[in-house]
Amino acid sequence: MKLDGIRVLDLSLFLPGPTASLMMADHGAEVIKIETLGEGEPNRHIGQRRGSPPDDTSVYFDCTHRGKKSLTLNLKSDAGRDLFMRLVDTADVVIEAFRPGVVKRLGVDFAAVAARNPRIIYASISAFGQTGPMVDRPAHDLAVEATCGLLSVNVDADGRPCLPAMPAGDMLAATLTLAGVAMALYRREQTGRGDYLDLAMMDSILACMPNSMGAAFGERRAPVPSEERIWGGNAFYRIYTCADGEHVVLGGVEMKFVRNLLTALGREDLIPLCAQPGAGQKPVMDFLEATFATRSRAEWEAYMADLDVCFAGVNDLRSGLDHPQVAARGMVLMDDRGHEHLGVPLKFADEPAEPRLQAPAHGADTDALLEALGLDAAERARLRAEGVC
């Protein structure tokens, strides 16, 4: 696999860092999750669990930690920090997602780690980055989306901001961390040196909105979502209600799709109105709202089957997971207990991923990893008694 032989020390919690290291684990990296003593990774305990009686860990944890090893370590102790640094000697990547400044106080920041291993790739993920006036502000995804302006255009029909269905800051930070680490690993092959990656969730969101900057950059104003092409200002990029209360979407604003549908519906006269988003498209929206309300979702899906139009029925999440396209792409995997897992999105022709579908118990690999560092059973027992591991 692509990352065979790469060792990752993952200090991160919750979603962005664990997702980044999960994608590395799926492609062969040895990922060692450094967990605190006690409860460990918080998402072990968040949300639903499978089975009856229920599993020890949540679905959330399984979806972010499969194929990893778990090492419990008290980094606030001198002995725990020393053990971490001994692991650094053998590692390629460190990922952390504490508030800025925490790793320095712990003595495991990039400067300390790189002094020990100059080849290390060290990635810090945070809400707002390691610099700037908000560096010390605590935040999860929702506050980051609010601060950067994304939430202001994620609105309901009355223009009120809505809770986002997917944590964009978390997930974009995860994927960009993966990309940044891969770049640094590649560059290390030429220079022999590691590097430091400062990855902010807010930076990640903004960088992934190039198609939404027209009003903000071109006219130096806040966009009005109902007038924008992908936020409600285009009749062919909207959600419509059917006669049975189900919903469908039109999801392509290219004029060829406009012509195909409006011609089929006998309303060629509306085609010119679709050239520009905004209030001028209201007659088209009104017509399509009334039209879609005349038939059930299933009837519209049958009608659209032979038309070249970007159209889809709105599935619930369970129906989406059960969709034949999801099955064909292997995006739901089944383990030997009959439990489902998310598939791997990076599909290489050569050396494809080999996801290991078992997530580790808390501290499951502590003994084996410390033994590999040369600690005998008596020394490990002493460290456990002292609250080090």
Q: How confident is the prediction overall: mean pLDDT?
A: 97
Structural class: alpha/beta
Order of helices and strands: EHEHEHEHHEHHEHHEEHHHEHHEEHH
Report the major sheet. Answer: 6 strands, parallel
The CATH architecture of the largest domain is: 3-Layer(aba) Sandwich
Bulk shape: elongated
- The CATH top-level class label of the largest domain: Alpha Beta
Amino-to-carboxy terminus distance: 31 Å
Notes on the structure:
- With 389 residues, this protein is α/β, with parallel strands linked by helices.
- It has 2 domains: 7-208 and 329-385, 3-Layer(aba) Sandwich (Rossmann fold), CATH 3.40.50.10540; 237-309, formyl-coa transferase, domain 3.
- The chain is built from 16 helices and 11 strands.
- It has helices spanning 16-26, 59-65, 78-88, 102-106, 110-116, 141-148, 168-191, 201-207, 214-218, 255-264, 282-292, 297-304, 317-321, 324-328, 366-372, 377-385; strands at residues 7-10, 30-35, 69-72, 93-96, 121-126, 195-200, 237-241, 247-251, 311-313, 332-334, 340-342.
- The strands form 3 sheets. Strands 3-2-1-4-5-6 form a 6-stranded parallel beta sheet, sandwiched between helices. Strands 7-8-9 form a 3-stranded antiparallel beta sheet, covered by helices on one side. Strands 10-11 form a two-stranded antiparallel sheet.
- The model has no long low-confidence stretch (mean pLDDT 97).
Considering the chains and any ligands shown, give keywords for the structure.
389 residues; alpha/beta; Rossmann fold; formyl-coa transferase, domain 3; six-stranded parallel β-sheet; three-stranded antiparallel β-sheet; elongated
